[in-house]
Write a structure and sequence with these properties.
This protein has helices at about 1-20, 35-55, 65-100, 105-115, 120-140, 145-150, 155-180, 190-210, 220, 225-255, 260-265, 270-280, 285-320. It is mostly helical. It has one domain.
Length: about 325
Amino acid sequence: MNRVFYVGVSAALFAAFAFSLNFVVPFIIGDYSTFDFALVRHLVSALVGLYILFSEKGIMRHLTLRNCLQAIWLAFVGYVGYFLTVTGAAIFAGPVIAPAFLGLVPIVLMVIGNQRQGSMPWRFLIMPLALVVVGLVLVNGPAFTAEGLNSVQSLWIGVPLSLAAVGLWVWFALANQAALTAQPDMPSGVWSALILVGGGVLMLAFYPVGAAMDLFQLPTLGFGWSAAGSLYVWGVSLALLATVGGVWAWNIASRSLPVAFAAQLIVSETAFGVIGGLVVHARWPTPIEAAGVVVLIAGVVLSVRDFYDRQFNIGKTLLAHE
């Protein structure tokens, strides 16, 4: 039990860090659009996924039409759709307000997941949930002041995109865990690879439509290394770290931990996102922002301790009855 617990916790925290990198994408790709970045990122991720599939023994029994279609759908909901809504929210609402709304994800997941599975008594969720709410208010409060709102391009676009990202991620987390639970013999690596390939297929299918709508800058700015080298470097780096690593880590966490507990860990994505936004803007956090990050981390630590203590006590009780 201890090994599964620590692997699940480590995987969830790594996934949170990997997903938080989406917040800084608009500020590192220069004149290229987020659609250009998404194309490079998901094509590289799909190539990695194909390598995993072709290197896996006995893969054909997992490549059913149902599994492939389900993986493509999950890729659309949780990776392509989520990535585009998050980066769009960061562009229009800024790198602080976007993580503020996405802080709703663990709260919604925590409530829905525990309502469905009943994996943790509600009394164990009250204190971590309270710390999460306080931390989010402290971290994001300054973003909603007059000074913070002046630097926002459009709340009317950024806020709906942020809420859409919340909905997509909650939907993905619940649907993905249900799919993994229904297929206990499905290796996490194979399922991750199918989702990665699905994301690449979706981006390729979208490219002609996006190019006709002038959403991609690659045809205009050029595909050559001299022009697009930075885009390729960042695209490949985040494909390997944020997409491949994030998908794989989250699938491991989904298989190892209840949704309600994993949701409490994913709140660290907000802390990572705020820190990343501060690094991009080359400034130190204000005392209130720093306090908020500390409270968020305290909520994560408390939830880990409570869940571990409960599982440990359950284990001792079962051993005593044997």
